[in-house]
């Protein structure tokens, strides 16, 4: 993870991204450098159009020799790097139409708290249990890793445990407080998620965060770890809690699904689904769905009736559950987001309109 940018022009683009509070920087041949602000792409000031060679030079300047070799072999590479102690970036360099492009995701150097992210305070409860399985889901770029980092850092400051993260690439860097915190990056410290997770059983780990569950082996090992006394956190690219449970189960072949359904019913603690929505006054604002795995939810998972989970969420607000539509309707009624954006991010427009009209 380099601490300097070898190309001075790229350094200026990164400085502007940080100064303008951008979330992403894109380098694509034929376009000026673009940064994403409040969810929209805008041109970097005085950036100029990048020709094919300039886009390639800027992108490859971020790579160490062994990384560049891996990039040419695989046609893409994920990694992270620190920039002047100001920020970290998660980077994907890739090819499109035979041209080299890069996408840099800005990662603040300081891990924000659950309160600073305006996440539900009930999330503190999930950081204090001894074992189980908690998932943060949502579309790409909507703060899954940021929410997980906040929950893990809450553990870091309140418990005396051994915390392990397995990431690809490593994003937030934790400063150990009351916990021993170790971070392993896929490709550098461990060959893959599954191998790192399996090794966890021999490393006296209490809490483990898996950057992403990509395959049945990782999912199965994670669920087994939650069964055997570990607190497991991870992410999935799904939209809703019910969809998340179906995705996990459907990842496995039919003859294994009954067992996984049973294991998931007994280990799942909850699912947080997060959306970052453009706010009327500028910036992005948080809308969430929160499923808490109570006895009714566990029975529905066990019996294969996940389609009824949305109804449980809707009728269990007194337990701390939050439906996405109620979150969106609340933001709209408080004049924090437009109706157009509320409708853009809902998964059930008819229900949202009904809630707004009440």
Description:
By secondary structure, the chain is α/β, with parallel strands linked by helices. The chain folds into 2 domains: 101 residues, 2-Layer Sandwich (Beta-Lactamase); 200 residues, P-loop containing nucleotide triphosphate hydrolases (Rossmann fold), CATH 3.40.50.300. Helices cover 37% and strands 25% of the residues. It contains 14 helices and 13 strands. The strands form 2 sheets. A 7-stranded mixed sheet has the order 9-8-10-11-7-12-13, with helices on both faces. It has a 6-stranded antiparallel sheet with strand order 3-2-1-6-5-4. A hairpin with a 2-residue loop joins β2 and β3. α9 runs antiparallel to α10 and α12 packs across α14. The mean pLDDT is 93.
Which secondary structure elements does this structure contain, and how are they paired or packed?
Elements lengths: L7 H12 L4 E4 L6 E4 L2 E4 L8 H9 L4 H10 L1 E8 L3 E10 L2 E10 L14 H4 L5 E6 L6 H15 L3 E6 L12 E6 L7 H7 L7 E4 L5 H12 L3 E6 L4 H10 L3 H14 E11 L5 E9 L2 H8 L6 H6 L9 H10 L5 H7 L3 H9 L1
Parallel strand pairs: 7-11, 7-12, 8-9, 8-10, 10-11
Antiparallel strand pairs: 1-2, 1-6, 2-3, 4-5, 5-6, 12-13
Helix pairs in contact: 6-7, 7-9, 8-9, 9-10, 12-13, 12-14
């Amino acid at each position: 993870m380099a601490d300097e940018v070898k190309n001075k022009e790229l350094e200026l683009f990164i400085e502007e991204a940080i100064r303008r509070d951008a979330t992403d920087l894109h380098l694509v041949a034929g376009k000026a450098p673009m940064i994403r602000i409040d969810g929209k792409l805008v041109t970097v000031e005085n950036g100029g159009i990048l020709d094919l060679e300039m886009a390639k030079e800027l992108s490859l300047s971020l790579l160490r020799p062994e990384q560049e070799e891996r990039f040419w072999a695989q046609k893409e590479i994920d990694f992270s790097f620190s920039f002047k102690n100001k920020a970290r970036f998660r980077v994907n360099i890739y090819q499109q139409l035979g041209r080299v492009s890069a996408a840099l995701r800005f990662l603040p150097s300081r891990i924000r708290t659950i309160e600073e992210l305006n996440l539900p305070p009930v999330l503190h409860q999930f950081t204090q249990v001894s074992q189980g399985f908690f998932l943060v889901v949502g579309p790409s770029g909507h703060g899954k890793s940021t929410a997980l980092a906040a929950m893990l850092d809450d553990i870091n400051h309140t418990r005396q445990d051994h915390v392990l993260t397995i990431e690809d690439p490593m994003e937030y860097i934790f400063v150990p407080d009351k916990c021993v915190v170790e971070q392993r990056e896929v490709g550098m410290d461990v060959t893959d998620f599954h191998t790192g997770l399996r090794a966890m059983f021999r490393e006296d780990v209490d809490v483990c965060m898996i950057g992403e569950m990509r395959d049945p082996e990782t999912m199965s090992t994670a669920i087994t770890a939650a069964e055997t006394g570990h607190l497991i956190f991870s992410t999935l690219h799904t939209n809703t809690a019910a969809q998340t449970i179906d995705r996990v189960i459907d990842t496995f072949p039919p003859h294994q699904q009954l067992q996984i359904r049973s294991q998931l019913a007994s280990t799942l603690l909850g699912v947080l689904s997060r959306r970052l929505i453009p706010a009327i006054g500028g910036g992005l604002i948080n809308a969430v769905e929160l499923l808490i795995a109570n006895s009714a939810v566990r029975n529905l998972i066990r019996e294969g009736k996940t389609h009824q989970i949305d109804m449980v969420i809707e009728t269990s607000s007194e337990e701390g559950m939050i439906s996405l539509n109620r979150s969106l309707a609340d933001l709209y009624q408080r004049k924090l987001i437009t109706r157009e954006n509320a409708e853009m991010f809902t998964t059930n427009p008819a229900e949202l309109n009904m809630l707004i009209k009440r």
